[in-house]
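Final report, Chapter 2: Outcomes

The project's central promise was a pipeline that accepts a single protein chain and returns its three-dimensional structure in a standardized token representation, suitable for archiving and comparison. That pipeline is now operational. To close this chapter, we reproduce one record exactly as it appears in the project archive, with the input sequence first and the structure output second.
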Amino acid sequence: MRTPLLAANWKMNMARQDAHKLVEDLLAKVNGVSGRDIAICPPFHLLADIEKLIEGRDSIYLGAQDLYWKDSGAYTGEVSAPMLCDVGCKMVIIGHSERRAMFAETDQTCFNKIAAAISHKLVPILCVGESLEEREAGKTEEKVVAQLRADLQGQKIESGDQLVIAYEPIWAIGTGKTDSPENANKTMIILRQTLAEIFGAEIAQQVRLLYGGSVKPENIAGFMNCEEIDGALVGGASLKADSFAKIVNY
């Protein structure tokens, strides 16, 4: 049985005071919730602060939005896996479409980052998804399978809890548009089949598959009712305690 995971991707938002209030309000609203995990992925400058606020809370984890694959060195502006572990991170988002599109992230860099995360016992949340043009051309399966194979083939994991996959149709991120739960579930089936080909059926059944792309309180239940969808990677709706709490409490 896979435990649902609701992950908040704050992107490049939040000053310290606002972040503290958001987390404090969120914790009050999800107090007592069981049977699901929560991940909070703030910008780098907030990681240590958020770790202190969630310390000791069961099933609430700190995540980062990116990392560099070298442990240390002359890489100005980068943050390494050991640094993330040092401030209490348990998860890290890798390959988000915004990083692929705006910062020239490739499947090779994603592969390197995933390997670094796994080696330091950080759980990668690997993002895959198709553009609107690819969707309209019927190339969704081709795109996401290619991404999974390029990013994961050759990675060394011993169990499915060492990896999370987030399927985020690029055309749905921040647009207010969402895929239908039925179509998203069909894509999840393809992702799990591909994971089975890479890692074996047992591990593939353990990996949590998240949907992302304009997730909000009004549509979360439809996705969570799908057999292959194990949670959500939430952007804008995670920046307000009330809306993200409603998503967690779906």
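Archive annotation: Residues 221 and 250 are 6 Å apart (CA to CA).
This record, like all others produced under the grant, will remain available to the consortium after the project formally closes.
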